[in-house]
């Protein structure tokens, strides 16, 4: 299914197809590509019922732009009555009695969820190899990772199974898999999308967003997802811009900042060359490239890998074997129930982050690690604020390399953390950013990252869309994908 | 920052994570490497810089002091590994 959301919506309105037909096709495609391991739960019954409702809505104009369009949710969003595992043994039996706000909004727009996408456990990972349900494979080369943590979402879109999928981004978990799988991934401003019902990892960084084929498709989905939600105290209470309406604006006069820090050590030559070519394309479109500096960029990984684990250790304290989820069998005491439930229910990376976070927050180390990381966080946010005094967007490679081989980095957590070098600073500063396909290196897709000031998603999507009107990288598909 | 097996045992206790004696040394090695990464923060010039806890430093909104959620105790208790009579059951805490 490689048509855009706009094309599918058009076909649905002209009765050339139906929501039921599109949904059946998506389910068949998902079943055919079971080798990707991109879905944890396929909800055939629920999807067909939702498709039938969408067909009724489509018969009564006007329906939403997403009505009848099949998609998948990252398995981090709670779905009423449908198992939500967060790719953890801890929640393998968890059936939420309520919907996340993102789930409710997309259902309200009559989009048809076909199931729940695989991911790194509790969104902790950069390769989707940390899933209780096994690794996801990259549709471009099944010996390679799709990136993470929204790896299942990215693989489903790249393989043409669904035109879009939801994702979450705490340190790059939408943008990095989008880059690795040759699709477009949007991480909105912190607070733009409600986190209610989105299982928490690091609450000051977590952000819901979308993975799709194009910026235009992302604009349609963000329009449905974004907005204030009284049930999320960190949700931004401000009007949602007209993302779709802003797409057509020409880029003449746009100032794009080039931060040399994002082209530093470790950037693969092929990735650097593709990104430089994309920037030259932006100049042709009328944009001006301006050098900017983000002097504290090199500290972003260190700050992130203190703050995120600290918040994780606190958030994941809720998994105690008492109220929901996994519980250790025949506990000898309450303490034994807690400690064995958590030892048996969490995977290795989740435990590692809980321990690091607990250490960083513990007496005697709080100032040296957690507080220091929060001060560095402000320096990083200030760097962006300073740069945005003279530019409208900042551009660079989303990732230092293309997708790596399965198993290549699993034995070295630090090598895996280094993957996030160009993405984590955006989360620390709470900014919106997008990754879009910008060419190939070693036959694998390369992602260009654009970063915008807070709440400038319309500008970001506009710049990405204009690039996609002038290039065809986003239309490239892995061999065999229809 | 290098940490030892005793420190891992202490943190694991704080985090309520059962860790086997044979796991302590390998975990100590891994955590030491992550903390070495964190020690890079020592290079930052942070004198006079206030900590940033939240990206937009927004203040929490007030809402009316009114009941907004329905009583769904039964639906939530149904998720519990063990519940009876409207209560969560846990192993005996006091003898």
Helix-strand layout with pairing:
The complex is a heterodimer of chains A (482) and B (95).
Chain A: H1 5-13, H2 19-32, E1 39-42, H3 44-59, E2 70-74, H4 101-108, E3 112-117, H5 151-158, E4 164-168, H6 175-181, E5 184-187, E6 208-212, H7 215-225, E7 255-259, H8 269-284, E8 288-292, H9 300-315, H10 334-345, H11 348-361, H12 366-387, E9 393-397, H13 413-418, H14 424-429, E10 433-441, E11 444-451, H15 457-470
Parallel strand pairs in A: 2-3, 2-4, 7-8, 7-9
Antiparallel strand pairs in A: 1-3, 4-6, 5-6, 5-10, 9-11, 10-11
Helix pairs in contact in A: 2-3, 5-6, 7-15, 9-11, 9-12
Chain B: H1 5-14, H2 21-38, H3 73-77, E1 83-84, E2 87-88
Antiparallel strand pairs in B: 1-2
Helix pairs in contact in B: 1-2
Dominant shape of chain A: globular
Element pattern of chain A in H and E: HHEHEHEHEHEEHEHEHHHHEHHEEH
**Percent helix among the residues of chain B?**
25-40%
CATH topology of the domain at 5-249 and 431-475 in chain A: Amidase signature (AS) enzymes
- pLDDT below 50 for ≥5 consecutive residues: which ranges of chain A? none
DSSP strand content of chain B: under 5%
Mean pLDDT of chain B: 92
Can you tell me the CATH architecture of the domain at 5-249 and 431-475 in chain A? Alpha-Beta Complex
Oligomeric status of the shown chains? heterodimer
* The CATH class of the domain at 5-41 in chain B: Mainly Alpha
What is the helix content of chain A?
25-40%
The fraction of residues in strands of chain A falls at: 5-15%
**What structural class should be given to the helix and strand makeup of chain A?**
alpha/beta
């Amino acid at each position: 299914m490689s048509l855009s959301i706009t094309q599918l919506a058009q076909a649905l309105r002209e009765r050339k197809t139906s929501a039921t037909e599109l949904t059946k096709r998506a389910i068949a495609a998902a079943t055919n590509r079971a080798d990707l391991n991109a879905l944890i739960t396929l909800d055939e019954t629920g999807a067909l019922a939702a498709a039938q409702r969408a067909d009724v809505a489509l018969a009564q104009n006007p329906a939403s732009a997403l009505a009848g369009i099949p998609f998948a949710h990252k398995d981090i969003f709670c779905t009423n009555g449908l198992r939500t595992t967060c790719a953890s043994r801890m929640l393998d039996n968890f059936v939420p009695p309520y919907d996340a706000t993102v789930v409710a909004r997309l259902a309200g727009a009559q989009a048809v969820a076909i199931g729940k996408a695989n991911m790194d456990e509790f969104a902790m990972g950069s390769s989707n190899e940390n899933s209780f349900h096994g690794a996801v494979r990259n549709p471009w080369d099944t010996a390679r990772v799709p990136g993470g943590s929204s790896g299942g979402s990215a693989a489903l879109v790249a393989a043409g199974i669904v035109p879009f999928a939801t994702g979450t981004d705490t340190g790059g978990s939408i943008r990095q898999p989008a880059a690795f799988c040759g699709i477009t991934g949007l991480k909105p401003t912190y607070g733009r999308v409600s986190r209610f019902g989105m299982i928490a990892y690091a609450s000051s960084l977590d952000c819901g967003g979308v993975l799709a084929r194009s910026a235009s498709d992302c604009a349609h989905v963000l329009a449905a997802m974004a907005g204030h939600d009284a049930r999320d105290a960190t949700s931004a209470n401000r009007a949602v811009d007209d993302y779709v309406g802003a797409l057509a604006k020409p880029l003449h006069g746009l100032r794009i900042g080039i931060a040399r820090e994002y082209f530093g050590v470790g950037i693969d030559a092929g990735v650097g060359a593709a990104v430089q070519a994309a920037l030259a394309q932006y100049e042709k479109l009328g944009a001006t490239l301006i050098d900017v500096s983000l002097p504290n960029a090199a500290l972003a990984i260190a700050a992130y890998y203190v703050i995120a684990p600290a918040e994780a250790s606190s958030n994941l304290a809720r998994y105690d074997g008492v109220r929901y989820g996994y519980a250790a069998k025949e506990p000898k005491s309450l303490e034994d129930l807690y400690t064995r439930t958590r030892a048996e229910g969490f995977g290795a990376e989740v435990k590692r982050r809980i321990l690091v976070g607990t250490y960083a927050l513990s007496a005697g180390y709080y100032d040296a690690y957690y507080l220091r990381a929060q001060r560095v966080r402000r320096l990083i946010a200030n760097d962006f604020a300073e740069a945005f005094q003279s530019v409208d967007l900042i551009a660079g490679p989303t990732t230092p390399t293309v997708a790596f081989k399965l198993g290549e980095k699993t034995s070295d957590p630090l090598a895996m953390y280094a993957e996030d070098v160009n993405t984590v600073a955006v989360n620390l500063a709470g900014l919106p950013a997008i990754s879009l396909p910008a060419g190939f290196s070693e036959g694998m897709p390369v992602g260009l990252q654009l970063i915008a000031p807070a709440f400038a998603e319309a500008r970001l999507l506009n710049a990405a869309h204009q690039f996609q009107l002038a290039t065809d990288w986003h239309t490239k598909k892995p061999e065999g994908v229809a | 920052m290098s940490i030892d097996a005793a420190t891992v045992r202490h943190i694991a206790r704080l985090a309520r994570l059962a860790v086997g004696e044979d796991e302590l040394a390998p975990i100590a090695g891994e955590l030491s490497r992550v903390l070495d990464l964190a020690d890079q923060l020592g290079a930052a010039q942070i004198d006079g810089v206030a900590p940033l806890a939240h990206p937009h430093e927004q203040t929490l909104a007030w809402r009316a002091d009114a009941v907004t959620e329905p009583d769904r105790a039964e639906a939530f208790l149904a998720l519990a590994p063990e519940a009876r009579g409207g209560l969560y059951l846990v192993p005996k805490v006091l003898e």
